[in-house]
């Protein structure tokens, strides 16, 4: 069944450790124009307002940098995504950094509070740190913990201020539902760069990770079938795709935290198209294109453009 797609642009980059991801969505649109592709410019496009001006100011929250601004982004995404879904639209997000994805999840859950949500997280990183466990304080490593309403206190290494703790509780409860997902309903693909604290919570919660080697040895079709079986009790699915899941030698280093030995663009395309065709999938997101770091002159945006074009065709057919 054809889905009524709305491209939702989110230029927020306040949770990353590097600058430039805010230019990612426009770099993809520019790549489409350069290649005389009309699939993006002819599509309904909506945006949320960013608070990237906060990058010019110091943050008081050492272990949850700019969490006050991120709370604003979460609330904006919660409202926008839930409204689109309630109007039978399919939100396809082009986002800057991955830290705001918890707001996307909040919006999905607000639209479907009684539905069980499965999450397919395609990424080099687990993004399941908390302010109590983070070594960097960068909140692009925390979106899944917000959705799980997790603190991971067994792996605690940081002491939080009262204000940071208060904001952390608020951000986990955006939309009035916490937790929003169950650990058993998360599936990772290509995660390969994690810290001990993340390994601890992944093991404790028994979150499934399909490594690059396993994806290759089993084949994409088999892995997709296994994931769909695992998520068979879920009513709806959200797919979050970080471009650093791909091997930078095959794409470029045009992303904030590239990690070698990732999946190929062809494998990424096959995985994403499979879920685009799944009737349970209600929202997809692509993040972390950073043209400022691209040594191949916008190559990551070009690769992402091709993937998005293919995914949109699958969503419409």
Automatic annotation (TrEMBL):
<dbReference type="GO" id="GO:0004053">
    <property type="term" value="F:arginase activity"/>
</dbReference>
<keyword id="KW-0479">Metal-binding</keyword>
<comment type="similarity">
    <text>Belongs to the arginase family.</text>
</comment>
<comment type="pathway">
    <text>Nitrogen metabolism; urea cycle; L-ornithine and urea from L-arginine: step 1/1.</text>
</comment>
<keyword id="KW-0056">Arginine metabolism</keyword>
<dbReference type="Pfam" id="PF00491">
    <property type="entry name" value="Arginase"/>
</dbReference>
<dbReference type="InterPro" id="IPR014033">
    <property type="entry name" value="Arginase"/>
</dbReference>
<dbReference type="GO" id="GO:0005829">
    <property type="term" value="C:cytosol"/>
</dbReference>
<protein>
    <recommendedName>
        <fullName>Arginase</fullName>
        <ecNumber>3.5.3.1</ecNumber>
    </recommendedName>
</protein>
<dbReference type="GO" id="GO:0006525">
    <property type="term" value="P:arginine metabolic process"/>
</dbReference>
<dbReference type="GO" id="GO:0030145">
    <property type="term" value="F:manganese ion binding"/>
</dbReference>
<dbReference type="InterPro" id="IPR023696">
    <property type="entry name" value="Ureohydrolase_dom_sf"/>
</dbReference>
<keyword id="KW-0378">Hydrolase</keyword>
<keyword id="KW-0464">Manganese</keyword>
<dbReference type="InterPro" id="IPR006035">
    <property type="entry name" value="Ureohydrolase"/>
</dbReference>
């Amino acid at each position: 069944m054809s889905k009524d797609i709305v491209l939702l642009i989110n230029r927020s980059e306040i949770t990353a450790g590097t600058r430039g991801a805010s230019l990612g969505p426009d770099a993809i649109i520019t790549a489409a124009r350069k290649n005389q592709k009309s699939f993006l410019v002819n599509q309904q496009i909506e945006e949320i307002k960013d608070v990237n001006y906060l990058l010019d100011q110091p943050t008081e929250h050492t272990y949850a940098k700019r969490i006050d601004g991120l709370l604003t982004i979460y609330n904006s995404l919660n409202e926008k995504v839930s409204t689109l879904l309630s109007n039978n639209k399919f939100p396809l997000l082009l986002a800057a950094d991955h830290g705001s994805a918890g707001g996307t999840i909040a919006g999905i859950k607000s639209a479907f509070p009684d539905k069980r949500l499965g999450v397919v997280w395609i990424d080099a990183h687990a993004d399941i740190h908390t302010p109590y466990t983070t070594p960097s304080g960068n909140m692009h490593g925390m979106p899944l913990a917000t959705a799980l309403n997790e603190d991971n206190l067994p792996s605690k290494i940081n002491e939080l201020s009262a204000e940071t703790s208060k904001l952390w509780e608020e951000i986990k409860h955006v939309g009035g539902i916490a937790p929003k997902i169950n650990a058993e309903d998360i599936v990772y693909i290509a995660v390969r760069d994690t810290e001990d604290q993340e390994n601890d919570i992944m093991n404790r919660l028994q979150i499934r990770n399909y490594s690059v080697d396993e994806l290759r040895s089993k084949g994409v079709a088999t892995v997709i079938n296994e994931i769909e079986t695992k998520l068979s009790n879920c009513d709806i699915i959200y797919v979050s795709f970080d471009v650093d899941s791909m091997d930078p030698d095959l794409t470029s280093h045009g992303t904030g935290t590239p990690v070698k030995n990732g999946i190929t663009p062809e494998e990424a395309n096959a995985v994403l198209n499979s879920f685009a065709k799944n009737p349970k999938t209600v929202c997809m997101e692509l993040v972390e294109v950073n043209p400022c770091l691209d040594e191949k002159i916008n190559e990551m945006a070009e690769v992402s453009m091709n993937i998005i074009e293919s995914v949109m065709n699958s969503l419409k057919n």
